[in-house]
């Protein structure tokens, strides 16, 4: 993953800020006129910025990045390409300044018990989990549980949870569609590589239109079948790179049988 990050940074450093903004605008499927209207700037000025005929101010770079919903790390790359210092810091989760973030994560994870919940970073590496998660990992190969644990790989790998997922083709479609969309919208080369890797794993893909309000995860656990619906919680106003890239994935019971089984186990 480190090499991917280096390649991404090198590409960003070599590209002019206007070219990077154009790439992000096209990734969001917006015309210059669309973006200019949303940002409250003239289409002519935006065109000049993208072609390098005008040098954007620091405030303009951040304003356009906000309109384009560009990830914070990529906003730093835009600023560097425009000749400005980065704005967003990346602090280790163990940093004293991150105490409030750690406390919030612990509170959320504990609140979900006896239902499984975990914290992942933007690359889908496991950061933390509550006690209920361990019951879902029975039978997973040790090599998939060695840090850094990638939870999507663990979910879809034939040595992981895949043999116990009763609706694997449907679950694969859900996971891979979500991952592919994240890779496209973020421009993250690591996520794109992970998507290609998981797409090549066996398990099939359900091509029928989704039925219902959400895709359940139906997992065999001993003699029982547990059915989950997943929810995601993020730090919506985070200005620290680490906090902004964390999310809490919770697996809530989709039926009373699952709820009762988890309460007994908890």
From TrEMBL:
Membrane spanning residue stretches: none
Residue stretches making up the HTH cro/C1-type domain: 21-75
MF-aspect GO terms: DNA binding
UniProt xrefs under SUPFAM superfamilies: lambda repressor-like DNA-binding domains
InterPro entries listed in its UniProt record: Cro/C1-type_HTH (IPR001387), Lambda_DNA-bd_dom_sf (IPR010982), MLTR_LBD (IPR041413)
Alphabetical list of PROSITE patterns matching this protein: HTH_CROC1
Domain of life: Bacteria
A Pfam family per the record: HTH_31
Protein name: Helix-turn-helix domain-containing protein
Species name: Blastococcus aurantiacus
């Amino acid at each position: 993953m480190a090499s991917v990050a280096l390649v991404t940074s090198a590409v960003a450093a070599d590209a002019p800020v206007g070219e990077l903004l154009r790439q992000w605008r096209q990734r969001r499927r917006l015309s210059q006129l669309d973006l200019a209207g949303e940002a409250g700037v003239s289409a002519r000025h935006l065109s000049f910025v993208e072609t390098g005929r005008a040098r954007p101010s620091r405030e303009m770079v951040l304003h356009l990045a906000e309109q384009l919903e560009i990830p914070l790390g990529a906003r730093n790359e835009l600023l560097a390409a425009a000749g400005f210092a980065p704005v967003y810091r990346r602090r280790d989760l163990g940093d004293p300044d991150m105490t409030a973030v750690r406390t919030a994560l612990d509170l959320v994870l504990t609140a979900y018990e006896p239902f499984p919940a975990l914290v992942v970073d933007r690359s889908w590496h496991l950061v933390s989990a509550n006690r209920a998660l361990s019951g879902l990992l029975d039978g997973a190969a040790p090599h998939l549980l060695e840090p850094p644990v990638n939870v999507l790989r663990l979910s879809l790998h034939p040595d992981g949870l895949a043999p116990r997922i009763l609706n694997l083709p449907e679950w694969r479609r859900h996971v891979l569609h979500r991952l592919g969309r994240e890779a496209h919208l973020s421009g993250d080369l690591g996520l794109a590589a992970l998507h290609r890797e998981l797409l090549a794993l066996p398990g099939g893909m359900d091509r029928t239109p989704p039925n219902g309000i959400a895709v359940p995860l139906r997992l065999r656990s001993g003699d029982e079948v547990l059915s989950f619906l997943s929810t995601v919680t993020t730090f919506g106003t985070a200005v620290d790179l680490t906090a902004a890239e964390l999310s809490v994935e919770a697996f809530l019971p989709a039926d009373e049988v699952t709820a009762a089984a988890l309460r007994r186990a908890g």
